[in-house]
Amino acid sequence: MYMKGMSERSAIPGASGGAVRVRFAPSPTGPLHIGSARTALFNWLFARRRGGVFILRIEDTDAARSKEEFEKDIIDGLSWLGLGWDEGPFRQSERGAHYRKYLEELLAKGDAYYCYCTKEELEAQREALLSQGLPPRYGGRCRSLAAPPEGQAPQAIRFKVPATKVEFNDMIRGKVSFDASLFGDIVIAKNLAAPLYNFTVVVDDALMEITHVIRGEDHLSNTPKQILFQRALGFAEPIYAHIPLILNADRSKMSKRFSDTALLSYRRRGYLPAAVVNFLAFLGWHPKGDREVWPADELAKAFDLAGVQAAGAVFDEQKLNWLNREYMKTMPDEEIVRALGPFFARARLGGGAGQGSGGSAGGAMPSSGKLFAERTDDPEFLRKFVAVERSRADTLADFLEHGKFFFALPDYDAALLVPQGGLREEARAALAAAADALAGIDGREFTREAVAAAVTDVITATGGKRGAVLWPLRTALSGLRASPGPVEIMDVLGKEESLRRVRKALDVV
Question: Domain check: are 444 and 350 in the same one?
């Protein structure tokens, strides 16, 4: 456990003087987590604010779990967010000689030693301590061996932990203190060729001249161990800042079991990178004032670690949706059309359109058929489609999820064509009048204005009951209970497809 002191937070070094050097150091053992992306962003913002260096380091010492596809996911995710690194990517799997050198130094100085205890012996030691009411830790059996036990091979290399307190000033949490006597001697490597995480981090941070270590609070317990290694090796101690975890709405830890935690799933779901950056920056920090929309370059000018809260930050997807809408508002229709290109391409390949912000699958897009191919290759159709649907979309995927009826009319019950309280005969009459009116418009003059005038004439001719005309006409065009108005739909579909859908409804009403 750590104890937080009451002292003021440290002033931020690097504001003047030596250059700030920070690193983002993910392990490629899974897709880039949304929390890790927030950590990368805070490092990037801090470096940009201080005119410093942002380093990408891939911590792949766990050979069994590290995968190239996960490293690619990390790099793709950072690139999508626009978090360009100044140095790297460095890979720990390629830096073994550095770790071996410092392991040998600790062994030579007597600050580390070979441990011969087997798993069974360690478990017995653990049980013995627990039975005495003591915390389970290594008992030090091999610490003072005069010679290796006969016939036994070393199982690990351990660091001799001194019985001392380790204190440091965390830029977010203030003074933090640990009692190192509770740790037991720490395993720092399986052997000279297989160093473990806590040791490799210390060597890399020193050789890369890292000035500030900004990482999640789940690493807080690693910090005193790493400080002990730094002191033993004569390395400078960086300044630490442990940022809060990201929590679900119920304040439970955000996990992939209950939440969408992979960063690139948000790209697939149609969020804009600028909105995600803005949203992540505000998970645990906020600049002064009430302003909510902050582009990355302005965030970098305002970012201050002293303003990061120590409490967990709640992931509010409604806030993310709102921010995404705000960013989409500033995008011209043509820019949104271009951004939708990958979603249409994925639908053509049968991969679906992504997932809408509401969590419903967008994979029901009509990925085959002449109309779909024609529409997705028609810039004017897509521009009109975007103009109509943008007010209903939280994400890019929502355009396709909510507007897929523009590409293929869904199956619907004929009863849907009849307004509540209306009569089937009235709905049929309205549709027949609408079909005649639409057929009378020259295809080259099938504009929104001409269609609106024709619909108004139908309403007048059928007794002025707007709902009795607009409801069956709209549902005939969309096949849905809720959709844009019939004039807006027909302006997108054009005369031929609009008339085909109205006549089809006449056949089934």
Answer: no
